[in-house]
Amino acid sequence: MENPTSRFLTIQDTDRLILLELDDVDLFNVMRVMRVNMYIAELCDDPFWNARIKRMYGGDKLKSGFSYREIYKQLRCQMSVYSLLYYCLINEFFPIIYYEIDKGVCIPVEIDDLYVEAFTNGELDLAEYLIGKGAHVEYYSDYIENNVNHGTLRVVEFLIERANRQGEDIRYETLAAEAISQNKDDILQYIIKKTEDQKIPMEWFSIYLDASVRTDRNIEYDY
């Protein structure tokens, strides 16, 4: 078997292209000699690994502040499809997620699970993409209260709108109480506006409306 480095011309840009064209097996054979061959180590810098990933998955530069060599090692290790996609979601490598799902490598339950992780992490563009790929949850209301506590207004709006489309029963009183207890004033304002025509008793919101009471966050709610 030909040693790929035998084609090197000691012109860095040209030799990087030779490495980029190698398949994974040949590339990793070359990588074995990196520690003793400073020239190869110099060729395999972070821009090289970024270019290698882009050749595999397409898309723009994935994200700054990461070692693309480490990313590449993660992507090529023997992890399950879902583990790969979850790893990419947490690290915001979205072009890889799009590429893998467009290949049709995921089963529906994996897409559903990834969808939950996407909106829980506030990645709503990815969530909308996954809806287009068939992602679904049975009850959005199961996730709303937790996101009032730990999420953002955008995520809560997204979940409530989806729950309404499915005709789910949303306990706005409970959500209002949670928003108050967590100092989520923007979410509380959204809930108040959302329920203007639903005749929810104003006493549910009195703690918010009374500035003197709002300073006390240790109030028990009588459900």
Describe the structure in your own words.
By secondary structure, the protein is mostly helical. It has a domain at 139-223. Helix content is 61%, strand content 0%. It has helices at residues 12-21, 24-31, 38-43, 46-57, 68-76, 81-90, 94-102, 108-120, 124-132, 141-150, 153-165, 172-181, 185-194, 206-209, 211-214. Helix 6 runs antiparallel to helix 7, helix 10 runs antiparallel to helix 11 (153-165) and helix 12 (172-181) packs antiparallel against helix 13 (185-194). The longest helix is centred in the middle third of the chain and has 13 residues, at 108-120. The protein is elongated, with a radius of gyration of 25 Å. The model is unreliable at 211-223 (pLDDT under 50).
Give a concise summary:
Helix content is 61%, strand content 0%. The chain is an all-alpha fold and 223 residues long. It has a domain at 139-223.
Q: What are the main properties of this structure?
A:
disordered C terminus; 15 helices; mainly alpha; single chain; 223 residues
Question: Which helices and strands, and how do they pair?
Answer:
Layout: H1 12-21, H2 24-31, H3 38-43, H4 46-57, H5 68-76, H6 81-90, H7 94-102, H8 108-120, H9 124-132, H10 141-150, H11 153-165, H12 172-181, H13 185-194, H14 206-209, H15 211-214
Helix pairs in contact: 4-5, 6-7, 6-8, 8-9, 10-11, 10-12, 12-13
Give the terminus-to-terminus CA distance.
Answer: 75 Å
Shape: elongated
Largest sheet: none
H/E order of the elements? HHHHHHHHHHHHHHH
The radius of gyration computed from the alpha-carbon positions, rounded to a whole number of angstroms, is 25 Å
Query: Could you give the count of β-strands?
Result: 0
Mean pLDDT, as a whole number?
78
Output the number of helix runs.
Answer: 15
Q: Given the helix and strand composition, which structural class is it? A: mainly alpha
Question: In what range is the share of β-strand residues?
Answer: under 5%
Percent of residues in helical segments?
55-70%
Provide the low-confidence segments as ranges: 211-223
